[in-house]
Amino acid sequence: MKHFLASFWLLGTFLHVCTQRAIPASEFQLEGDYLIGGLFDVHDDTGSVKPFTLSNYRRFQMIRFSVEQVNNSTDLLPNISVGYDIFDHCSDTQNFPGVLKFISANGSIQPWSDRQSVPSKVIAVVGPFTSTQSLTVAPLFMVNLVPMVNYATSSSVFSNKAKYPSFLRTLPSNSDMIDVIVRILQKFNWRWVAFLNSDDDYGNDGLDLFTQKIKDTEICLPYSKGLSDSTNYSQTFKQIEAQQINVIIVFAPENSVEPLIESAVLLNVTNKVWIAGDAWALNKKLPKMKGIKNIGTVLGVAEPVVTIPGFSDFLHSSKAQLHCKYAEQDKFCNQKCNCSCMNPEDILAADPSYSFAIYSAIYAIAHALHNTLQCGADKCNSNITVYPYIVLAELRKSNFTLVNNSIQFDDNGNLKQGSYSIVFWNNSGDAQEIGFYQFNSQVHFFIDDNKIEWHTNGEVKSPYTCIKCKDIEWSEEGSTSCNLRAVEYISVTDIVAILVLVAACVFVGMTLAMSVLFSVNYNTPVVRSAGGPMCFLILGCLSLSSLSVFFHFGKPTVPLCTLRYLPFLLFYTICLACFVVRSFQIVCIFKIAAKIPKLHSWWVKYNGQWLVIAVAFVIQAIFLVIGYSCKPPSPYNETSWYADKIILSCDISLKASTASVVLLSSICALCFIFSYMGKNLPKNYNEAKAITFCLLLLILTWIIFATECMLYRGKYIQLLSALAVLSSLYSFLFWYFLPKCYIILVQPHKNTQQYFQGLIQNYTKTISQ
């Protein structure tokens, strides 16, 4: 995204020049009532512009043929012409002007404008070729829901409609291709394999999907490698030999595969089985390379070769009228056609991969336009204004048959029905079909292994039997054995546990000391304003809540897990309930008593504060009994966070404890509301302010702990939990009770009846004024 934004800013200035520059008619443009944008790799996108390949040029001619055939149809779009504007996606630095032109209207771009502003003539875009290219330009088209119908990008990330709502594709996704590869391995019982992938979005997606799909199988992946221009092929093959791997999956485009296979021939790599992805399974150059049989047997997963009627005639007729006079013209984005060296037979003989996908993409757009314009048998309603998002809506509803193939899209923009051919590179240097894979509502898979001419010494055997390590074991990448995982938990004798337990003991000692101090000074104004007898209940419950801390350490057992939060949830509820009634009483005395005297008298007459506390205690006790009875906490081994460790912890059911936590949170929220209402009470008469501050600390503490739980699952999570409990307890001890102890011991002149009455009288005069 950051590369895209930077390029957007830098290259946006060229849009005006690009759109205004006069370019003669060529194979790259065709005028029409509606335009389809094309992003095609006529030249290889390798950082520097190289001569185009025949397979790339064949795909380029396929979009031209498809549009021409649509225009020649008498019933698809009668009285409507479709044109195209194709950009050679030749390099990363020169692709944006084409994209910007597609999303512009009258030479300007307004990304935040209303969808029904001046529409662009480009109603949909076909391409680009690679997953990385698509990831780069897709956000530009997604903004205004311009349909992006892709014929080659198979990365599974584009199935995410939240990010790519207007992306559809007319080929199966990587997920389907990886499924075929896994079925091939299972068919021949190959369990020890290497996976070589291009080090880009396409290849890495394939590796991730393969790793996921073999999890519950006997297939092992002892070696994987991302291929790039700097790959040391000699070292790669040495590592494969060291692991005794005989089956190599290569999931990469042709420009990454060709140097790999050429290196395998030169380095005399022999007796391997190679499984090709659809990007190179139908490669025309490699099967005829000298010495290719020595590397072993090549099987591949490829698009079925569909004979498209009329394409051959189109090539022969168009090559007779080529605009070669423009070959010398240095047009924008390298849109040159060096066509003199080619003939139709060469183009027809090139790799046909993705040809039918392009053909399907154009026809899908045409059918969507047909429905948008409400076309009948002889004409379309040309008065309808066509916006890309309307075409997108019709594209999603596509349901038609093309050359005996059904074209429909699912909710993720993928084909509902599709197929692959399973091929074998035979002795003649051709990709011979030996099986198929079809998916719709069901999957059909078949391989006729009698057709395979094996170039390896007999049956390929896996040197190891792949077994899944037990939960208490782990294995390094490429290892042939399982090792016991290290078991981790914080014992009671651990230094951090000792420090926390000491802090808990100090807390209990402080609450006892404060209780003694308050009992000695029971009849003084400070103690009575702090709650009087309620102070002893709060201090006692805070002490009982601290019991939870003592059960956070040691090897988890059922009793230890049960008591880890039970005392805290139960007794801390009482503490918060006490502060709720204290906050309410403070507000009631100063603000409500005069306005609603009946409520105040009822509260005093029936001891409302004790009634509220009792009800909160009973309800929480019931919730805890029910929750802990339905799903009691139990020891739990955390094995997913670390490959080589087992973290001993407690499994506390979220559903079972939801009611208790919700009640505690509700009381906390109510307490915060009442205490905040009393924030402007007399100076130094600051119980409400103190309670508000304590609650803010409490909320902040548990937000931090919840965040830590999402980011970290190691053994110290129980230490963090104990610290969160202690922080919740110390906050009230330090910020509510400790200041009162300070007044009693250090400032006794403020602990007099006269001092408090003076504060109240001054406050009363202030609010009356």
Automatic annotation (TrEMBL):
Gene3D superfamilies: 3.40.50.2300. GO terms for molecular function: G protein-coupled receptor activity. Pfam families: 7tm_3 (PF00003), ANF_receptor (PF01094). It comes from the Eukaryota. One of its GO terms (cellular component) is plasma membrane. The chain crosses the membrane at residues 495-522, 534-553, 565-590, 610-629, 658-678, 690-713, 719-738. InterPro entries: ANF_lig-bd_rcpt, GPCR_3, GPCR_3_C, GPCR_3_Ca_sens_rcpt-rel, Peripla_BP_I. It is found in: Cell membrane. The keyword Transmembrane applies. CDD domains: 7tmC_TAS1R2a-like. Residues 496-754 form the G-protein coupled receptors family 3 profile domain. Residues 1-20 form the signal peptide. Keywords: Cell membrane, G-protein coupled receptor, Glycoprotein, Membrane, Receptor, Signal, Transducer, Transmembrane, Transmembrane helix. Its main location: membrane. It is a multi-pass membrane protein. This is G-protein coupled receptors family 3 profile domain-containing protein. The gene is LOC120435226.
